[in-house]
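Problem: given the chain below (278 residues), write out its structure.
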Amino acid sequence: MSEPVAVITPLLDPDPEYLLDSYADLRQQTMPWRWYLQHDAATATTIPAVIAADPRVSVGVNGRWLGSGGSRNLALARAAGEAFVYAHDYDDRLAPGAFVALLAPMCANPQVGWVAGSFGDLHYRAGRWEAAPFLYDVPPGPVPAGAWIDLMTEWPAPCAPALPAPTSMMWRSELLYGLGGWGGVPRGEDTLLVQGAYALADGYLIGESTGWYRKHDQQKSRDASSYARVEREAALLLARRREAALRAQTGRRGAWRFGSGTVEAPVASVAGISGGLS
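Solution.
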């Protein structure tokens, strides 16, 4: 398969070291890609010269702070019509061969709209990054449309089932555009998107580890003060109402049907990052 994957990444005062790590991970992918960076601010932060000089990298600026969901949508609007989209946070890590593993189920079945891989955690200990596995509460394999919609009822309670997030998922762009991209409520953008995908489209969960979520103090998602209480409550209320509406529709018209046809399958396999990360 020679068509590039559109990689969508919002930026807000990014750490250059983490950004360079992401760039190195992308360069290890055996599938072609284009990287759409979107500055979530009025002005662009300087990015490492080696990244800015790469013709596969496209940089955009919001003009003001919009949040990660709005930034991803603006980056998606700049994409060049690629058939597949991967939403990547700049501070996360990708396993070599991750794109191959994530694309394989969609190449084998043109009606699979999304594919998720296992995404572990990275913790900094004793001067090095160490990977810790993360287990989902659902088994790998095909996920028929509507199969997971009831599992999202308890979001975001601590006891809610662990399900894949969009940053571990490869998307068929037709589905992503059809769902309207990321939701417009802070801290609810990802949930609103995956609710629609889980309810309306067939998906696939692979067993391989395709990346790692880096735990660090600069993460905006760990700063509760950056989100007002009314925003959190609105996200929860809207998510629960949408879940009820989607559940009522699940099964009435069958799964989302895609018209892009089959794609030649990639041949390489995923290679995980073993042990720790220096």
